[in-house]
Structure formats: C-alpha cells, structure tokens
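S.,

As promised, the 2',3'-dideoxycytidine 5'-triphosphate run. Input:
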Amino acid sequence: MAVGKPVNIEEQHKLQDALDILAENFEFNENEGAFVTFSRAIAVLKSLPYTISRMGNLDGLPCFGDETRAIIEEILEDGVCSKVESLLCDEKYKARKLFTSVFGVGLKTADKWYRQGFRTLEEIKSAKDLKFTKMQKAGFLYYEDINNAVRRPEADAVGQIIENILHECTPDVTLTLTGGFRRGKESGHDVDFLISCPDEEKYEGLLHKAVSKLNSRGLLLYCDFMEATLEKRKLPSKMYDAMDHFEKCFLILKLSKALVKDGGLSASSVSVVRPPNEGAETEVKTQTKDWKAIRVDLVIVPPQQFAFALLGWTGSRHFERDLRRYTHFEKNMMLDNHGLYDKNKKVFLEAKTEEEIFAHLDLEYIEPWERNA
Ligand code: DCT
Ligand code: MG
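Predicted complex:
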C-alpha cells in the first residue's frame, strides 16, 4: 500500500464531502447499490491516517471501484468534481436535502412538495393549504435545535434526567446509552437509549409512566409511541434496516442548558419561533431561550434480547449492514435486533452479551468505537 502524506484535514474533507453528496443523491434516488459502494469508500477514507494526494495512495485500499476512483482523480486534478458541482446547483437535489432535514419529512413528502413547486422551508411553512403531521409540526417548530448536533455533555445530561425518572418508576431498571455516542462519537443527531429490567413484569406501562413524568415536569416537547409487536416476529428480519418490534418512543425533550456539564451554549441565545402555516404577516415571537430541544429515542428491551438490541442499536448502520450480510452469506445465519438464528441447525442461538454474539459468528469481539465504519 502506498502511504501518503499525514492527514491534511481540509483535503481529506474535500474528498469525503464530494463522495458524501453523491452517496446522498444515490440514496434519494433509491439506488441502494451505488449508495453502499460510495458509503464504503467514504468509510475507508475516514479511517485513513494519511491524505490521498495522488492516485497511487489508493493502491491496495479496499472498496474503491472505477466510479469512486474517477471522482477522486477528477478532484485531485481539477480541485472539484463536475458531478458534485452540478448536483449542488440542482433544484431537485437541493429541495430534497432541505425538506428531508425536517424531522418527520421523508423522501415522498419532500418530492411531493418539490412537484408542487415549493423550494424553501419558508414557502412550505406559510402555505395555507398544506397539512402537516404532528411530527412535522414539531420538526418545523424545533428545526434549528434539532439540526444542531447533540453534543456529548448534552447526551449525558439527558441520560441523567431519564435515569432519575425511570428509577422513580422502578429502582432496578437500567438505562444504556447506545447509537453513535456508545461508539465514542462526540456528537450526533439524536440520543438513543435502551431500557431494561431483570423483572419483565415491571415493563408493563413503564415507558408511558416515564414519559408522563417527563411531561408533567415540562420536559416533553414531542412524543411518538410505538407499541411492541414482538408476537409478530418469527425469524430474524432479512431487511437490515427494518424497524424492530420493541416498544419504543421517539421524543423531543426540552433540555435546560443549566443542566449541561460544560454549561452548554450561552443561556442568552435568542431564537425565533414561528410554527408552520403562519405566514410572514404573523407576528414572530422572539424568545430568550435557556434550553435546547433534543431528539431522544427510548427502546424497551426484554432481558433475553438485550445483547442483540444493544448490538443493533449501537450501529453504525454500515457496520450493521455488513455484519448482517456476513452472518447471512458466510455463516448461513440470520441476525437482527432480537436474536440470531442458525439456518443449518434450525435453532435460535442465545447470548447474554455482545461478546457471545460475536463468538457465535466466529468473529473476534469488535469494540463499539471500532464499529464506526
Ligand atoms: N437503529 C435500529 N432501528 C431503528 C433505528 C436505528 O436498529 N429503527 C440502529 C441503527 C443505528 C443505531 O440504531 C442508531 O441509529 P441512529 O441514531 O440513526 O444512528 P447513530 O449512529 O446514532 O447516528 P447519530 O449519531 O447521528 O444519531
Ligand atoms: Mg443516534
């Protein structure tokens, strides 16, 4: 492998950003194959301890095919990639990116708004005849906060609040931080937690009780419950990104900046709040805000499925996809957030810890912080 100069962050980001934009557009166009190819190349770039400054630096690296190589070659020669440049000016790409940045807005809705001629969020919010879901209303209302990454001290503060409330409900419950923060990331788009308890009888109503306590303390800005559908599950799902069957809720919580260990952002930051469907003629309320809206996922997990849920919810999505492909193609087994099924022996394999799951798969244990790619 040809080793290049030490990492030049700016140069490396130029390559990553270009591939990111192209990958995102493949995802918008539901071109799963190209999306995965580009995402893998991005993951390799992110892991390199040196900068790609000439094509020879790619020699021996996995996951770079003709297409990704051509993009990199063009950037190394011209400083920019023409495909990326034209996408950045493309009305449809820009609208899809902007509209899907609102919590609760998926590609279908984004495309519908685009076809209806909308191009900006202001246009959408002031359109009198558009109907919004409860989730989208919250998405617009807390847009700025939600699109501002959650930082680790904020995730810790949220964890403390939820843990205290859960312990008021039942003392032997445990709250486990998962998602990107468990992988050691310093920031993320939300905070993901698993809730578990050795005694399954205590699960009944626990999530609803905890959320109602959050509400009565004025900390709940939005809540969407999903009831458990555990009885529907038979074999592990083949769809790597299918929603699992645990009882869960997607929340937006109001986190007081005073509770954040490093003080958070300045308590005097000013925020403009204008709900959707209220045009420019509506008086805009300017508020001094000493809190931040934070997206939180809470998932209730039965003890015998905890290790699988932890492995699944720790991510990253790319890691999960690759692990499940390996499980399927190399081991003839099926893995999801609930369990591991051996298709040869026709049995479910039990595991109390993630280490035991890796052992079933004949893999060395991979630490959460090594699962970013
Ligand atoms: N996941 C899952 N089922 C879902 C949603 C997510 O199994 N319905 C898994 C995939 C990755 C992990 O949980 C966390 O999901 P995200 O929060 O989307 O990803 P993240 O890695 O935590 O990214 P971020 O740091 O941006 O939150
Ligand atoms: Mg997350």
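Residues 179-180, 188, 190, 192 surround magnesium ion (ligand 2) (CB under 6 Å). Confidence is low (pLDDT under 50) at residues 266-272.

- D.
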